[in-house]
Amino acid sequence: MEHTPHTAWLAEAATAAEQQGPGNLLRIVLIVMVLGCVLTAWFLLRGYKRKDD
């Protein structure tokens, strides 16, 4: 097993982080999708409330 210095490992990690791709876009899309599902469920279930007058 080859020993790599910490500075080289950090440099490789930094370059790999730049080449990640659509990570932030995918995260935003997933958050918006979950919030949209929650709001849609709230809107639909709001109409099924019983009004006991």
Q: Could you explain the architecture of this structure?
A:
The protein is an all-alpha fold. It is built from two helices and no strands. The chain starts with 5 loop residues before the first helix and ends in a 7-residue tail after the last helix. The model has no long low-confidence stretch (mean pLDDT 80).
Distance between the termini: 76 Å
The biggest beta sheet reads: none
Order of helices and strands: HH
Radius of gyration: 23 Å
Shape: rod-shaped
Strand content: under 5%
Helix/strand structural class: mainly alpha
Counted by DSSP, the helix tally is 2
Helical content band: 55-70%
Total strands: 0
- Stretches with pLDDT under 50, minimum 5 residues: none
Mean pLDDT: 80
Write the layout of secondary structure elements.
Blueprint: H1 6-18, H2 23-46
Short summary of the structure?
With 53 residues, this protein is mainly α. It contains two helices and no strands.
Which terms summarize this structure?
mainly alpha, single chain, 53 residues, 2 helices, 0% strand
